[in-house]
Design a protein that fits this description.
This protein is mostly helical and 424 residues long. The chain contains 19 helices and no strands. Residues 1-44, 51-76 and 233-240 have low confidence and may be disordered.
Amino acid sequence: MLSRAARKRSATALRRPLQFRATTLTTSGAPRALSSGATNPGNSSWGRANPKVSTLFTALMTVGVASTAYGVYQFYTTFTMWPPEVRGDLRAGIKAKHQGNLDLSARYLKRAWETAQTLPLAAFGSEPHLKLSGIAVVYAEALEGTNRPKEAYDLYSAALAQLRAAQGLTGRERMRAVAIAHKLGEMGEIYQQPPEEVEQWLTFAVEEVLRVVRDGASAPDGKGTAGGVGTEEPEGEDGAMLAELDLPWWVRKIDVVAPLEALGRFYAQEGKNEYAVTLYLQAIGMLMQPPPKQKNASVEDRCRGAQLMNNLSDIMVRGPPPTNVKYAESWARQAQGVIEKTRALPEAQKEPESMNLCEQTLAAVLFNLGALLEMGGKYDEAKQSLQGSLEQAKRIGMRSGAMEARSALRRLERTVKENSATKT
């Protein structure tokens, strides 16, 4: 029987790897966290990013944030499709950005954005809101890069407000609104904005993406609309059947999963575990669903699914005992099984970046599983799992993971000795 002190240490150890997991699962393609040295005299919270939230740019979220620029750079490959009034500033702003001169880029893009606001929508041709919001997105990215997060946040907000006020949007324009709302939610977390505001952005992103997917079934070419953005309440069955829906070609699976995961993580942080579990289950269901005529989901989706299963395990352990540890252990083992099966897929060796996510997730899964087994008094199995986490972390060069595993093994050894002394 575990002593009270041992149970407390085990529970603490289980929660601790969540930050180690999120930090180490950030891939090289992750967006740079904005400098905590940014200042804004009007609102001190914009001058200091929340370090705990800043570590949460996992690979899944990274792709979700990247979707904010959905279609933007395709437009820039042919500048002639832009109105002559903004074309020159856009070209100069993008060129300066690629050259690393973000201050100069921001100046050009600011002028392009201000000019664009004075033009009629007809000047932008087809899908005008996709192009107009695209200028805002690239300008906001430049503002973020120059440590002006409050200005970027306000610009994203303005761009989203324009999209939500518009009528007759195409599916791709509506997905732009989803991506911007998702981005605002993440920035709100990083820069410690009120939780109600963060929830508002992320809830809109989830509800709107459900509406877009539903409406896409009747307009698979991406041109159909259901009025403006957010004109109807999403039906309850939409979420329940999300994994079974055929996505339009212009909606990627990750575009749907990213806001689901972000809102689920937000609710987990707020202690609303029931909501978080529902959202994570939907996201996992979508990721693990194979494409049409395929036997398995892609390597990338399977690795992301395993990552979310590990996160779900962490949420499950917060539930009422004694089933909490049982369910948490079940999800951790499922994550482990998915990774091991993914390793054996023929295409796994062709996707090293996706497999890197799987390998890093496995180190975290084994660590968390060890902590869960320790909580259940299964010391031998716990030691084996923690030892496996240590070896996996060392194999892939995850120094922080190896340090955590060594510390957990030492703690487990002390716990075993304490319990042995208590029995005698």
